Amino acid sequence: MRTMLWRSFLGMSVVIFLNLGVSAAPDEMSLFFKANEAYRQGDYAKAARIYERILQSGKTSGNLYYNLGNGYFKSGRLGSAVLSYERARRLMARDADLIANEQFARSQVEASPEPKASFFKMRFFDYCAYLTTDEWTIFVFVLGLATVIAHLLSLQQNWSVRQSRFWAGLFFLIWISHAGILVFKVNQQKDQAIILQKTDAFFEPRIKATIHFSLSEGTKVKSLKVEPPWVKIERSDGKMGWVQADTLEKI
Amino acid sequence: MRSRFFQCILTASLATGFLLVPALRGEDLSFEAAVNANKVNLGNALQLILTLHGGELKDPVPLPEMEGFQTRYLGPSTKISVVNGQVSSQYSHMYLLYPTKTGVFTIPSLRVTVNGQALATQPIQIEVVDSAVTAGGTNAAGDSSAGSVEDKIFMTLTIPKDKVYLNEKVPVTIKLFINQLLVQDVHYPEFTHEGFLADEFFDHEQYQQVVGGIPYQVVEFKTTVYPTRTGELKLGPAKIEANVLFAVAPPSGQNRFDQFFGDDLFGDFFNSYDKHPYTFSSQEQALTVLLWPKENQPADFVGAVGQFNFAATVSPVQLTLGDPLTVRMQVSGDGNLKNLPMPDLKGWNQFKVYEPQFKEEPGKKTLEQVVIPQSETITEVPAIHLSYFDPQTETYQTITQAPFPIKITKSKASEDFKIVDFTGEGASARSRPESIGQDIVFIKEKPGPWKKVGMDFYQTPLFAGICALVLLWWGGMVGLFLWNRQLKSNEALARRLQAPKKARKGLELARQQMVKGEAKEFYDTVFRTLQEYLGDKFHWPAASITSSGAEELLRSRNINHDILNRVKAIFAHCDTVRYAGVDLSGESLQDSYQRLAEAIDLLERQKR
For B74-105, how does the pLDDT look when each residue is reduced to its tens digit (9 = 90+)? Predict the structure, then answer.
């Protein structure tokens, strides 16, 4: 019985890892190097255009967004640079160069109000942000697999009911709490957007409405509702207003 | 058990639905408007509730523009009640009305169409009164005439004079006056200042001021502007955004203290407040901007306006040819220091002049200019002049810093080449902290792992497949464990499952013996195979199964007579051959084999 358990697990693992191969993308690779060359020669706008062409082909990578952010930054498009860095953060959360560049780009735009959050809330957000969504997915999957294996071992080893409940319960609790974090992270990221150019947020979705507050380029906001051509947004300090849809882009 | 529970719930729900629907349909439709008070103080908000009885009104009713009120939709509420079997429903929509002035106003008849039936509310008259008048019979100014929110909160934008000179400093004071109403979240003002440069606002001040006999809370903002072109210009209007707090009284009947003590004693305690955003505007201010007079205008005047002090120094005064010297100028005083043109050093042909460095501090502006004398014959640094126009005296002033004597010695040959410190602060510059540049980090050389745009791993079919695979593996393994456990604990089941397998083996052995013509062994095998098969299938001791034992067993298990007779016949035939020693032909063996196979097959098809 033990042999069967391990043989079946081994077989399943082989099937999974055979399917995890990353597809090669020769066209995208050559465009990427071409864009890098343009950047090296100081033609930042051209470099950004070529990076954008790669994105239009449907392929992306953390480094591509990072380089695109650099291209935008050097071309003076700070809002788009912050947007690209944010997108890169979703693919490589702990890259030191990326963190430095994003902070520098943000320091070049007007400071937006800091969200009011408690110490524990901030630590929780840091914990969520430490891994990318894909990394969280794999982590939660591995925890789930560990829970399943713990359960099967308890059956195979004829553990006592108490012992089985303890270990299966422990693994399950860890798994369910991290699955909850993954769901929270996915939901939190869903409606985030970046202001691409300085704009005003109005009380109502019309041009002549009263201005509620101003938004500098690069400000991260949450998109709440879309009524073309207006979008209702919420700033990090909780203030809400309507802005024109072409002044922001979802991350 | 569970399905029966759900069936009960479903039946009960359907029954309730069927009972309710006719009852609801039968109810009369009516539409009414209600307010929580017909008389309200300016500064208090009024609740308006529109209610439809007997029908469905999911969307809010749009309110028309109403004189004397601003409106805000609060939300819907639904109520279904069953009293003595009578079902009634009501859909309500709540609004807040904010009075904007005193007087008697009418909420007009509001119309809706429900199920093709046009319904309308009755108009409601509302009296809006000034709280100060209500309390004292007349307001503080002794004026009991109509008032408005704008009378209680207003703004002013003031400047000290209406004729100014180009680039003259003009102080601007913006005040927000508040009387009786509560105001929160006051933003910094914004004001139109086309044709002016404006400074940032200073910190605001708050104090009390009596205007026309009425005490006001005043929020004062100050800034300065500088006209950048001449002509008739306008400043303002200034706008301030703020939230006005309107007291919202609980629905009538809930606040019994009001009835007993009057409305103000406990009113504020029981009221809640609702913020309503307002933008207040001031009047604009016209002013004339004049060009500086042409008379007596100094030749080096370049537009400095105000009252200034000017000082200049030169150091070092003894130097070697080729060494730099620093000219320091400082201007302080009252005027547009930010855009003040500093005296330039045009005409200093005997000096090599480098880019100046400016430094601004509150109330003063400093310039440091590095120059290098080009000849050892130079004996003085020329005089420096600052000319400005004083708008108070309307005269031009020129401050001159006298020529500065210097002594230049010729450089030695060994010192022909030396590093020139362009800051003029040779010694201090070396001890100055290193200046670190800042920029973004360079691009990445390689693209890294590729993925599809907008597709996270958890959204891919691969991930779904892996999860399904793991779940299937888990389910399969759990099933397998449980099945093995079941077989270990249930011998009858294990034997029943083993029975056909063992029977097939017995039949195969019998077939081989049949082919070899070993009749005795063949019938032994046939007997034993059938005996063991029946014992395993019905969990019975195999040794006790004989012709008669088999009959008893099969009857107890309700096996049909045909099969029972076939089994009995096989046992009987086996006994005859084994004990009577009859030598049978190959055809007989074939027939017995066929009968055994059929009997086992029929028994396998029988339900247990």
Answer: 888 888 777 776 777 888 898 888 888 888 89
